Amino acid sequence: MNLIINPVAFRLGSMSIKWYGILMASGIVIALLMAIVEGKKRQIMPEDFSDFLLWGVPIGFVGARLYYVIFKWDYFAQNPGQIFAIWNGGIAIYGGLLTGLVVLILFCNSRFLPPLLMLDIIIPGVMAAQIIARWGNFINQEAHGACVSLSFLQSLHLPDFIIKQMYIAGHYYQPTYLYESFFNLIGLIIILVLRHKKGLYKRGEVFFSYLIWYSVVRFFVEGMRTDSLYLMNTIRISQLVSVILFIVAIVLLIYRRKYKHVKWYLDGSGLKYPYER
Protein backbone atom coordinates (compact mmCIF):
# COMPACT_ATOMS: atom_id res chain seq x y z
CA MET A 1 0.00 0.00 0.00
CA ASN A 2 1.06 3.57 -0.65
CA LEU A 3 -0.65 5.29 2.26
CA ILE A 4 -0.89 9.07 1.98
CA ILE A 5 -3.19 9.27 5.00
CA ASN A 6 -2.37 6.95 7.89
CA PRO A 7 -5.46 4.95 8.99
CA VAL A 8 -4.30 5.38 12.60
CA ALA A 9 -5.26 8.85 13.83
CA PHE A 10 -3.38 8.58 17.12
CA ARG A 11 -2.37 6.12 19.81
CA LEU A 12 -3.32 5.81 23.46
CA GLY A 13 -0.58 3.66 24.90
CA SER A 14 -0.76 0.36 23.02
CA MET A 15 -4.22 1.18 21.60
CA SER A 16 -4.50 2.48 18.05
CA ILE A 17 -7.39 4.88 17.40
CA LYS A 18 -8.27 4.70 13.72
CA TRP A 19 -9.85 7.35 11.55
CA TYR A 20 -12.53 4.87 10.48
CA GLY A 21 -13.74 4.53 14.06
CA ILE A 22 -13.60 8.28 14.61
CA LEU A 23 -15.61 8.93 11.45
CA MET A 24 -18.21 6.28 12.33
CA ALA A 25 -18.58 7.66 15.87
CA SER A 26 -18.86 11.21 14.50
CA GLY A 27 -21.54 10.08 12.07
CA ILE A 28 -23.54 8.45 14.86
CA VAL A 29 -23.37 11.60 17.02
CA ILE A 30 -24.42 13.81 14.10
CA ALA A 31 -27.29 11.43 13.29
CA LEU A 32 -28.49 11.60 16.90
CA LEU A 33 -28.33 15.40 17.00
CA MET A 34 -30.20 15.69 13.70
CA ALA A 35 -32.92 13.34 14.97
CA ILE A 36 -33.31 15.24 18.25
CA VAL A 37 -33.67 18.61 16.51
CA GLU A 38 -36.24 17.32 14.03
CA GLY A 39 -37.94 15.16 16.64
CA LYS A 40 -38.85 18.16 18.78
CA LYS A 41 -40.74 19.60 15.80
CA ARG A 42 -42.61 16.31 15.35
CA GLN A 43 -43.44 15.91 19.09
CA ILE A 44 -40.94 13.16 19.89
CA MET A 45 -38.84 13.55 23.04
CA PRO A 46 -35.00 13.61 22.76
CA GLU A 47 -34.59 10.70 25.19
CA ASP A 48 -36.56 8.44 22.86
CA PHE A 49 -33.83 8.91 20.25
CA SER A 50 -30.94 8.51 22.69
CA ASP A 51 -32.55 5.41 24.23
CA PHE A 52 -33.05 3.89 20.79
CA LEU A 53 -29.42 4.66 19.97
CA LEU A 54 -28.25 2.63 22.98
CA TRP A 55 -30.05 -0.41 21.57
CA GLY A 56 -29.96 0.20 17.84
CA VAL A 57 -26.26 0.91 17.33
CA PRO A 58 -24.70 -2.11 19.10
CA ILE A 59 -27.34 -4.54 17.81
CA GLY A 60 -27.02 -2.97 14.37
CA PHE A 61 -23.28 -3.64 14.39
CA VAL A 62 -23.96 -7.26 15.35
CA GLY A 63 -26.42 -7.54 12.47
CA ALA A 64 -23.99 -5.94 10.06
CA ARG A 65 -21.27 -8.42 11.03
CA LEU A 66 -23.66 -11.40 11.02
CA TYR A 67 -24.85 -10.47 7.51
CA TYR A 68 -21.24 -10.44 6.31
CA VAL A 69 -20.32 -13.70 8.05
CA ILE A 70 -23.36 -15.55 6.66
CA PHE A 71 -22.51 -14.70 3.07
CA LYS A 72 -18.81 -15.44 3.59
CA TRP A 73 -19.46 -18.64 5.53
CA ASP A 74 -17.15 -20.77 3.37
CA TYR A 75 -14.26 -18.70 4.69
CA PHE A 76 -15.43 -18.33 8.30
CA ALA A 77 -16.27 -22.02 8.62
CA GLN A 78 -12.58 -22.68 8.03
CA ASN A 79 -11.48 -19.70 10.17
CA PRO A 80 -13.96 -19.41 13.08
CA GLY A 81 -11.51 -17.31 15.06
CA GLN A 82 -11.98 -14.53 12.52
CA ILE A 83 -15.75 -14.23 13.05
CA PHE A 84 -15.35 -11.57 15.72
CA ALA A 85 -12.30 -9.85 14.16
CA ILE A 86 -14.21 -6.79 12.95
CA TRP A 87 -11.00 -4.74 13.03
CA ASN A 88 -10.06 -6.60 9.84
CA GLY A 89 -13.16 -5.28 8.08
CA GLY A 90 -16.42 -6.97 7.20
CA ILE A 91 -19.28 -4.69 8.29
CA ALA A 92 -22.19 -4.81 5.82
CA ILE A 93 -24.35 -1.67 5.71
CA TYR A 94 -27.48 -3.49 4.59
CA GLY A 95 -27.14 -5.96 7.46
CA GLY A 96 -26.91 -3.09 9.93
CA LEU A 97 -29.84 -1.21 8.40
CA LEU A 98 -32.14 -4.24 8.34
CA THR A 99 -31.25 -5.20 11.91
CA GLY A 100 -31.69 -1.60 13.04
CA LEU A 101 -35.12 -1.55 11.40
CA VAL A 102 -36.25 -4.57 13.42
CA VAL A 103 -34.91 -3.02 16.63
CA LEU A 104 -36.68 0.27 15.89
CA ILE A 105 -40.04 -1.43 15.31
CA LEU A 106 -39.76 -3.32 18.60
CA PHE A 107 -38.59 -0.17 20.40
CA CYS A 108 -41.44 1.95 19.04
CA ASN A 109 -44.03 -0.68 19.97
CA SER A 110 -42.69 -0.72 23.53
CA ARG A 111 -42.85 3.10 23.72
CA PHE A 112 -46.14 3.54 21.81
CA LEU A 113 -44.38 5.62 19.17
CA PRO A 114 -45.26 5.61 15.44
CA PRO A 115 -42.45 3.59 13.78
CA LEU A 116 -42.72 5.17 10.33
CA LEU A 117 -42.56 8.68 11.77
CA MET A 118 -39.49 7.69 13.79
CA LEU A 119 -37.91 6.34 10.59
CA ASP A 120 -38.74 9.57 8.75
CA ILE A 121 -37.03 11.59 11.47
CA ILE A 122 -34.00 9.34 11.87
CA ILE A 123 -33.21 8.53 8.24
CA PRO A 124 -31.61 11.87 7.19
CA GLY A 125 -29.14 11.42 10.05
CA VAL A 126 -28.49 7.86 8.90
CA MET A 127 -27.68 9.22 5.44
CA ALA A 128 -25.30 11.77 6.96
CA ALA A 129 -23.59 9.00 8.96
CA GLN A 130 -23.21 6.89 5.81
CA ILE A 131 -21.70 9.81 3.92
CA ILE A 132 -19.15 10.43 6.67
CA ALA A 133 -18.29 6.77 7.34
CA ARG A 134 -17.56 6.07 3.67
CA TRP A 135 -14.51 8.31 3.99
CA GLY A 136 -13.17 5.74 6.43
CA ASN A 137 -13.07 3.32 3.49
CA PHE A 138 -11.10 5.94 1.59
CA ILE A 139 -8.52 6.29 4.36
CA ASN A 140 -8.26 2.50 4.73
CA GLN A 141 -7.91 2.10 0.95
CA GLU A 142 -10.76 -0.43 0.84
CA ALA A 143 -14.20 -0.90 -0.77
CA HIS A 144 -12.82 0.42 -4.05
CA GLY A 145 -13.48 -0.54 -7.64
CA ALA A 146 -11.36 -1.98 -10.41
CA CYS A 147 -8.04 -0.69 -11.68
CA VAL A 148 -8.14 2.55 -13.67
CA SER A 149 -5.56 4.85 -15.16
CA LEU A 150 -4.17 8.00 -13.58
CA SER A 151 -5.57 9.99 -16.48
CA PHE A 152 -9.07 8.65 -15.72
CA LEU A 153 -8.92 9.86 -12.12
CA GLN A 154 -7.54 13.20 -13.25
CA SER A 155 -10.43 13.52 -15.71
CA LEU A 156 -12.81 13.45 -12.73
CA HIS A 157 -11.11 16.62 -11.44
CA LEU A 158 -10.48 15.03 -8.05
CA PRO A 159 -8.27 16.68 -5.45
CA ASP A 160 -4.69 15.45 -5.54
CA PHE A 161 -4.90 13.83 -2.08
CA ILE A 162 -7.78 11.60 -3.24
CA ILE A 163 -5.90 10.49 -6.35
CA LYS A 164 -2.79 9.69 -4.31
CA GLN A 165 -4.77 7.71 -1.73
CA MET A 166 -6.30 5.62 -4.53
CA TYR A 167 -2.84 4.45 -5.57
CA ILE A 168 -2.71 0.99 -4.00
CA ALA A 169 0.00 -1.61 -4.52
CA GLY A 170 1.20 -0.03 -7.74
CA HIS A 171 -2.22 0.63 -9.32
CA TYR A 172 -4.92 3.30 -9.30
CA TYR A 173 -8.47 2.23 -8.46
CA GLN A 174 -12.04 3.45 -8.90
CA PRO A 175 -13.00 5.55 -5.83
CA THR A 176 -16.39 3.88 -5.41
CA TYR A 177 -16.67 5.15 -1.83
CA LEU A 178 -16.59 8.68 -3.29
CA TYR A 179 -19.42 7.98 -5.74
CA GLU A 180 -21.63 6.56 -2.99
CA SER A 181 -20.80 9.38 -0.59
CA PHE A 182 -21.39 12.07 -3.23
CA PHE A 183 -24.75 10.78 -4.46
CA ASN A 184 -25.94 10.15 -0.90
CA LEU A 185 -25.09 13.78 -0.18
CA ILE A 186 -27.24 14.85 -3.13
CA GLY A 187 -30.08 12.65 -1.84
CA LEU A 188 -29.73 14.05 1.67
CA ILE A 189 -29.89 17.64 0.42
CA ILE A 190 -33.02 16.86 -1.61
CA ILE A 191 -34.76 15.26 1.38
CA LEU A 192 -33.77 18.08 3.75
CA VAL A 193 -35.06 20.69 1.28
CA LEU A 194 -38.36 18.91 0.58
CA ARG A 195 -39.40 17.30 3.87
CA HIS A 196 -40.81 20.51 5.39
CA LYS A 197 -42.90 21.43 2.35
CA LYS A 198 -46.57 21.28 3.28
CA GLY A 199 -48.65 18.68 1.47
CA LEU A 200 -45.69 16.75 0.05
CA TYR A 201 -44.64 13.92 2.36
CA LYS A 202 -47.01 11.63 4.19
CA ARG A 203 -45.83 9.63 7.17
CA GLY A 204 -43.26 7.05 6.10
CA GLU A 205 -42.50 8.67 2.76
CA VAL A 206 -39.23 10.28 3.81
CA PHE A 207 -38.06 6.78 4.69
CA PHE A 208 -39.39 5.32 1.43
CA SER A 209 -37.65 8.12 -0.50
CA TYR A 210 -34.39 7.13 1.16
CA LEU A 211 -34.89 3.45 0.27
CA ILE A 212 -35.57 4.33 -3.36
CA TRP A 213 -32.63 6.72 -3.63
CA TYR A 214 -30.07 4.63 -1.77
CA SER A 215 -31.02 1.36 -3.47
CA VAL A 216 -30.40 2.93 -6.89
CA VAL A 217 -27.08 4.46 -5.81
CA ARG A 218 -25.92 1.25 -4.14
CA PHE A 219 -26.97 -0.93 -7.09
CA PHE A 220 -24.70 0.93 -9.51
CA VAL A 221 -21.83 1.50 -7.07
CA GLU A 222 -21.89 -2.17 -6.04
CA GLY A 223 -21.49 -3.15 -9.68
CA MET A 224 -18.10 -1.39 -9.71
CA ARG A 225 -16.74 -2.81 -6.44
CA THR A 226 -14.27 -5.67 -6.28
CA ASP A 227 -15.12 -6.89 -2.77
CA SER A 228 -18.82 -7.72 -3.18
CA LEU A 229 -20.55 -10.54 -1.33
CA TYR A 230 -22.07 -13.07 -3.74
CA LEU A 231 -25.01 -15.47 -3.67
CA MET A 232 -24.10 -18.78 -5.33
CA ASN A 233 -21.04 -17.04 -6.76
CA THR A 234 -23.16 -15.29 -9.40
CA ILE A 235 -25.41 -12.63 -7.85
CA ARG A 236 -24.08 -9.67 -5.92
CA ILE A 237 -26.00 -9.71 -2.64
CA SER A 238 -26.16 -5.92 -2.26
CA GLN A 239 -27.51 -5.51 -5.78
CA LEU A 240 -30.21 -8.11 -5.10
CA VAL A 241 -31.16 -6.42 -1.83
CA SER A 242 -31.19 -3.04 -3.61
CA VAL A 243 -33.64 -4.29 -6.23
CA ILE A 244 -35.91 -5.80 -3.55
CA LEU A 245 -35.89 -2.64 -1.41
CA PHE A 246 -36.53 -0.44 -4.46
CA ILE A 247 -39.58 -2.48 -5.49
CA VAL A 248 -40.94 -2.75 -1.93
CA ALA A 249 -40.58 1.01 -1.34
CA ILE A 250 -42.31 1.91 -4.62
CA VAL A 251 -45.18 -0.56 -4.01
CA LEU A 252 -45.74 0.60 -0.42
CA LEU A 253 -45.60 4.26 -1.39
CA ILE A 254 -48.21 3.83 -4.14
CA TYR A 255 -50.41 1.46 -2.11
CA ARG A 256 -50.53 3.69 0.97
CA ARG A 257 -51.26 6.77 -1.13
CA LYS A 258 -54.09 5.02 -2.98
CA TYR A 259 -55.74 2.84 -0.35
CA LYS A 260 -54.76 4.13 3.09
CA HIS A 261 -55.60 7.26 5.02
CA VAL A 262 -52.12 8.26 6.15
CA LYS A 263 -51.25 11.29 8.24
CA TRP A 264 -48.95 13.95 6.86
CA TYR A 265 -45.35 13.88 8.03
CA LEU A 266 -45.60 17.47 9.26
CA ASP A 267 -48.52 16.52 11.55
CA GLY A 268 -46.00 14.87 13.85
CA SER A 269 -46.72 12.20 16.43
CA GLY A 270 -49.93 13.70 17.81
CA LEU A 271 -48.59 13.05 21.33
CA LYS A 272 -48.96 15.66 24.04
CA TYR A 273 -45.50 17.22 24.04
CA PRO A 274 -43.48 17.26 26.22
CA TYR A 275 -44.45 13.92 27.71
CA GLU A 276 -42.90 11.89 30.49
CA ARG A 277 -41.64 8.32 30.48
TrEMBL record:
Keywords: Cell membrane, Glycosyltransferase, Lipoprotein, Membrane, Transferase, Transmembrane, Transmembrane helix. GO terms for biological process: lipoprotein biosynthetic process. It comes from Lactobacillus iners LactinV 01V1-a. Catalyzes the transfer of the diacylglyceryl group from phosphatidylglycerol to the sulfhydryl group of the N-terminal cysteine of a prolipoprotein, the first step in the formation of mature lipoproteins. Belongs to the Lgt family. It is found in: Cell membrane. It is a multi-pass membrane protein. The keyword Membrane applies. GO terms for cellular component: plasma membrane. Its main location: membrane. Pathway: Protein modification; lipoprotein biosynthesis (diacylglyceryl transfer). The chain crosses the membrane at residues 17-37, 49-71, 83-108, 115-133, 176-194, 206-225, 237-255. The keyword Lipoprotein applies. It is an enzyme of class 2 (transferase). This is Phosphatidylglycerol--prolipoprotein diacylglyceryl transferase. GO terms for molecular function: phosphatidylglycerol-prolipoprotein diacylglyceryl transferase activity.
